[in-house]
Amino acid sequence: MTWATARVRGPVNPWCGDGAAWQIAGVAIDDFPRQLASTKYFTLGIPHAVTVSQDGGRVLFLRTRGGEDPVTCLWGLDLADGAGDGGGVRERLIIDPAASWHFGPGDVPEAERVRRERARETAAGIVAYSADADCRTVVFALDGRLWVLGLGDDPRAPAGVPEPVPAAGAATDPRIDPAGQRVAYVADGALHVTELADGTGRLLAAPEHDEVSYGLAEHVAAESMLRFRGYWWAPDGRRLLAARVDNSPVRRWWIADPADPERAPRAVRYPAAGTANADVTLHVLRLDGTRTEVTWDRSTYEYLAAAEWDSQGPLLSVQSRDQRTVMVLAADAVTGQTTLLHTERDDAWVELAPGTPARTSAGDLVTVSDRGGSRRLVVGGAAVTPDGLHVGSVSGTDGEAVYFTATDEHDPTERHLWRYDPGQGMSRCSADPGVHDGAAAGGTVVVLSRTEGGSAAAVAWRDGTRAAIASLEAEPLLEPRITWLTVGARKLRAALLLPSWYQPGTRLPVLLSPYGGPFMQRVVRARDAAFCEEQWFAEQGFAVLVIDGRGTPGRGPQWSKAVFGDTLAAPLDDQVDALDAISAQFPDLDRGRVGIRGWSYGGALAAIAVIRRPDVFHAAVSGAAPHDQRLYDTHWRERFLGLPQQNPEGYDRSSTITEAASLTRPLLLIHGMADDNVVVAHTLRMSAALLAAGRPHQVLPLSGATHMAADALGQLPLHELAFLARSLGVARPDADLR
Question: Is 50 exceeded by the pLDDT of residue 223?
Fold first, then answer.
């Protein structure tokens, strides 16, 4: 295949001084970074946030109208639309924020902005909603205004017009009660309830001072425990279980925008490792204004890891500060006293599995436990999953059935949705290789899938009818061309992406692009945006490698906990070992020109790679990296390293800033100035340490950007490419044609 150049409009590619752009197979390569930005990293148009009615007859979900439409709408399907016709179920648009009832955008409340940042939500419109148990009434907030819509029983009737709900202020996280009679929401840190029948409002809990809030998750809960909620309705709709968060003990940090000196810095309460956490208590709030505190040993178990209120009553799990013990408790809604249901202990840390604890209809407790070398689903005290199947999360219960996601250690590149029923055993709900999740109720199952062909969603209705939910994601201008590899003694999983024009005998510089650490697998059989971006780098003339080493999820407790006490050594060794093994298989990889790039933890891994192993890595791009482990939050950092006061050597060993003076290779540091997760101080301190040691480097600040850096997506790859090309001496593939 040959390259051709052509003129296109748009920003000048740093490769080309005269503004020319180039193509392959008719695709303007320079257009791809702009597509990354316009599609929000290919997240638009994909169905998500699925709710299934308790009788299994109705499914609701969120989706934008297309792959470049940033406004999310609420959609629905009903079994009655297609019962008996083998799949004639039709989608219907239920709520469109672009319609005339929405009389103009307002300001997103600060609490909602923070919630979206923690949830990595980049779209606009209806980004969250709440439905009653029958999915007959939904509530949502749009730019702080509260709305309700009754869906009725006839799916053929046109959707109505949402009606405004009186609120005491800018509303955040509204949730309707299971019976559909009233809605709770948070405004200015206070928890309110409004009767939907007449608009009567009640103040259930008001903050005692400015640092207190009711009904919101604290920073470490949302960022590190993945608990985004702060209150839960009782099934009767007359009581709530609500978290009270007092941030007074937490240190105050300031997030400023140096590009706008007239704007005052924003104060945030950030619990850095070894410092005080927020004081979190849990309360039963009643509509008559009375309350009862739920009691447990908070001095020992200061983390509220999860909470729920099901048909058996309030259920919660609490975790010790050292994260080695988790207790599951049942609470008495009248007295607030708790009863111990289960204790989980681990010498490193107890992994919190999303969706747990839970209970079946009969009251059997559902947890996830590391037993016998596998991360197992435990129902009613018995482990029900086999050796080698590692549970990631619990998607929910439906009667006595439990739905969960898991990976098989024989192929951790796939994650499937499974069903366990005590009478029928285990069955897999997803089929194709890929990454799957879902939701279920009333015998109806929705499977959400990401495969190498893209995203998809399918509904298996309770009566046997099947239907697909359309995914409207944009087709990437560049399709990933992936060679899946298993290499080395540890059977490391890797993905190799080569240029489409590559011919054997063509020497290619190498670019590693890992995340490589806890929380995320990168080497999975799904066409995600990162693989598309890596193919773009490949088309520039690189052989791109993505490697999952020790510390990544999906391969069991021993694998994931190999980073306990040292979060950098084992992952870096695995990157080098995999590179060695793959180079032996593909001799065209030029080991004299090896770069590495990464974001967040991947950014720290990239920086330490070029510092510790300059014999292997010759240039690095480190984005939004936690260079100083003492500056990251308590729950995430202490999980691996303990308290810095007790393990200073571990923090030094896991901080790239400690070894800054050893840098001998080109390093580009990138950071968003408005990042309130990995604050920009990490990169500024790293740069200062490098400067003090006389080590040349580059810093790219992103004004106004958060940890997601969503607004910079269209330009960042161009800057990274220019830096890597200069540092590694890589010529543009069409240079001979130019």
Answer: yes
